[in-house]
Amino acid sequence: MYINGTSREQLNLFDNKLDDIISDNNPVRFIDAYVDKLNLSQLGFNNSGTKEGKGRPPYAPEVMLKIYIYGYLNRIRSSRKLETECGRNTELIWLTGKLAPDFKTIADFRKDNRAAIKKLFREFLKLCHKLELLSFRCVAVDGTKQRAINHLDNIYRKESMDQISARIHDKIEKYLEELEGNDRAEEAEYDFISKNLVDKLSKLKKKKEKIDIIKQMFTENPELEIYFAEDCDSRYMKDNNRINAGYNCQTAVDEKNKLIIAQDVTNESNDLHQINSMMNNITDVKKELNIEEKTIVVADAGYFEEREIVEAVKNEHFEIYVSHPRDSQAQKTKVKEKEGKVPAKGFHKDDFTYDKKNDIFECPAGKILIKEGNGYIEKSSGTYKIKYNCRDCKACNHRSLCTNDKSGRSIKVTEFFCEITTFREKCNSDLGIKLLSKRKEIVEHPFGTIKHHWGYRQFMQKGFEKVSSEFSFIAFIYDLKRVMNIVEFNKLMAAI
Length: 496
Hints:
Helices cover 44% and strands 16% of the residues. It is an alpha+beta fold. β7 (295-299), α11 (306-313) and β8 (318-322) form a beta-alpha-beta unit. α1 packs antiparallel against α3, α4 (79-88) packs across α6 (103-112) and α7 packs parallel to α15 (464-486).
């Protein structure tokens, strides 16, 4: 004997209410209630569908937004898949009241409401603050790379354009020769091959036209070195030892419940110039929520850029701690002994003591390094640097542990050396070490959920503005999911 389902031919005297197909504590009820409480017109949402006065009425923005929120929460981002789910997914049928917009209407809603969708992230933070889920005592900042819709085959370098053009030209000539040969042969024997060649030739000619346009772009823009054909705003990004076209996504995560309180997207390949930008974003959020307490900001060595650090320290509303690359254990394990460099077990820059009063460095062997000139601007970085040289290295018994340079050991420091030294001492204090060790457990949770659990490793949109809006929405969805996991359903419903 087995459990039997309801017969498909069974007649019902009365249909059940639509509301009966969803349990009383189903999360979609919160999505429905939350969107209904939002003032969408104030946020900037507009109707999606046919224009006013033409054809049938448009779908309400509330319905379209509910579809997108439900989709991203359940790892359904494609507008075509959302269209399908609207017709068969019980929860979406309840959420939309049996409405099923087509994929183009769903896609147009996202396209037409980018700015408004971006505002949802901060709007939801107001509810998080009301529920006392945010502390703003300690915030961890980190970045991750997300792939853009731009395959490596569609990235073009200025110096390689002539080679690409020549290869295409050679292939076209080859196919033309084959077609000419086929024309002279029997039609029946080469009918299939001829059709295939014509197809290939047509594609190659289109590609040649595309290459000619890109070559013209390089000619008209001398400063342009690389062109990303599918997503022009994306850039090369290194992630897990792989190079892809993508974006650098930044988040600031609150320690209390690991909620994202600030986010941003940039196409810079590293995090060196992001700390002050993220602090400004946090400041804007604190102003909106009327929070005046000082906030501790922690970040890893990827954010350590001296000019940025010096500027950030001046901000009275924050106390920042950023790991120095040389203080990071990961960096220490990468030290290798190479010819012409300081030996792995030798004297390194941090082993030298600076005497601020006399403006000199003293090496571990007691030798003095004296300032050379008034400094210089380093061409590669544009940074002002000062050089200190030791003139007493020849007779030193520790020379083999210090340098292989014939002129003796030298040390280069930036103009911010004293400020950075003080900052490093603060970060290496007991409190600093404790805070920096806590950073990873705070900030890795969102990226683990977004990239590994949900699989959101690539953007669905192209272009900086669209990508920025999409990541803001993903951050909102993460916070929404997190809140629904940590707050009881009844309390959540009561809050709105």
